Amino acid sequence: MTDAQETAADPDLRTTGDPRREPWESQPPDGVTPAPTPLLEPREGIPPVVADEEALAEVVAAFAAGSGPVAVDAERASGYRYGQRAYLVQLRRAGAGTALIDPVGCPDLTALDKAIGDAEWILHAATQDLPCLREIGMRPARLFDTELAGRLAGYPRVGLGAMVETVLGYALEKGHSAVDWSTRPLPEPWLRYAALDVELLVDLRDALEKELDRQGKLDWALQEFHAIATAPPAPPRKDPWRRTSGMHKVRRRRQMAVVRELWTARDRIAQRRDVSPGKVLGDAAIVEAALALPPNVHALSALPGFGHRTGKRQLEQWQAAVDRARALSERELPQPGQALQGPPPPRSWADKDPQAAARLSAARAAVTALAEELHLPQENLITPDTVRRLCWEPPAPATAEAVAEALRGYGARPWQVELVTPLLVDAVAAG
C-alpha cells in the first residue's frame, strides 16, 4: 500500500475526522460551538503536477470516465506577473480524484474541457477564475458558485475558508493564497494547499444546495449561476490609466497627460518583462510626477518613487514620458473625465433633479428593507446601478410591466424582477 493509499484508507492520517461525512447534518449541544477540524492532507495525497501532454492525456481520460460535478479552481500570480493568467489549475471529480495542472507546460486544456462536457462546474467566486480559465480553453456549460450561494443563503462571511468552516466544520490552511504561483517548481506546501482548495467543494456545494432549497432560494441561485456561465467576456476597459490609484489628486489636463504617458510606458515595460506593473513603477510615483511636472531628470529623481534605487536609464525613460506629455498641444490633452455612461453621481441629484433624488431615496430604503428581510446582501437582490438608472430615467408611464421590462433590459434576472418591481413602482411614484 502506498503512502497515498494508506492516507486515504485511514482518515486519522489526514484530519481528526472524515470530510466524506456530512457534519452539517448533526447539531452540536445547545450553546456549544465545536472547534473546526483542521484539514491537513488531501484524501488521496498530493497528486503530481501535470506538465506535459502525456500526463495531461491521462487526466483527460480519468475525468472523462469520472462522474458527477467537477470542482475547479485556478491560481494566478497577481502582484507578481503581468496580467491574470492561470499558473495552476486544480480539479476534482468522483472517480477521477484530484488533478493539478500546470498551464505553462499545458497551455491548451480544450481536450479536458471536452472530456468534462456539460457536467456542472463548482467554483468559489467564479467570476475571478473564469477569465483565466477561458484563456486556456475551459468554459463551463453549467456552474455552481459556492461564494455566491453563500451570499444568497445569508452567510456573513463567504470566503472559501470561512464557508468550509461554517458549513462543514473544517479549517483550511489559507497561508499560501497570495504567493507567486509562477514559481517553478512549486513547493510541496503550496501544492497541498492547492489540492485542499478543491477537496471539499463538492461537499460544500451539496450542503449549500440543501440550505438554499430550505430557504426557498435555490431557483434564485440557479438563475444567477446561469447568468455567470453564459455572460460574454468583459470588453477591454477604456482609458485604463484613469484608474491609477491617487488619480483624484490630478486636476489639470496636462497633469492627466503625464499620468497617461507614464502609465502607458510602464504597462509596455511590464508586459515585455512579464512582471506586475506595480513592480516597474508605483502608482504613487506616477501621481507625484504628474503633480510636479519635473522639467528634467534631476528634478524627477528628487520625487518620491524615483529615488537612488532608480537607475539613470530608467529615470531617462520616465522623464521622456513626462516630456512627451509636456509637449502635447491643448487639443491633444485628455479631457478631465470620461463620458458618463448612465446617470450622474447620486450626490448631485438633489441639485440636478430633486424628483429623481426622491425616487432614489425611496427605492434605496425599500430595497434595503427587503434585502434585510430576505437575509441577503442588497447588491445581490438588485444592483445599485440598476436602481440608479431606473430612478434617474423611469419609464413613462411607470406601470409594473414597464418597470419590469426596464429591469430586464438592465440585466436583472427573473427572480429579481419579480421581487423588486412592486417596490420600484412605488418608489417611482413617490418621486
Automatic annotation (TrEMBL):
Q: Which Gene3D superfamilies does the record cross-reference, listed alphabetically?
A: HRDC domain, Ribonuclease H-like superfamily/Ribonuclease H
All residue ranges annotated as the HRDC domain in the record: 252-332
InterPro entries named in the record: 3'-5'_exonuclease_dom (IPR002562), Exo_C (IPR041605), HRDC-like_sf (IPR010997), HRDC_dom (IPR002121), HRDC_dom_sf (IPR044876), RNase_D-like (IPR051086), RNaseH-like_sf (IPR012337), RNaseH_sf (IPR036397)
One Pfam family of this chain: DNA_pol_A_exoN
* Superkingdom per UniProt: Bacteria
Q: Where is the composition biased (Basic and acidic residues)?
A: 11-24
Enumerate the residue ranges of region (Disordered).
1-45, 330-354
Query: Which CDD domains does the record associate with it?
Result: RNaseD_exo
What SUPFAM superfamilies does UniProt report for this protein, alphabetically?
HRDC-like (SSF47819), Ribonuclease H-like (SSF53098)
Q: What is this protein's record name? A: Ribonuclease D
Starting at the broadest rank, the lineage of the source organism is:
Bacteria, Bacillati, Actinomycetota, Actinomycetes, Kitasatosporales
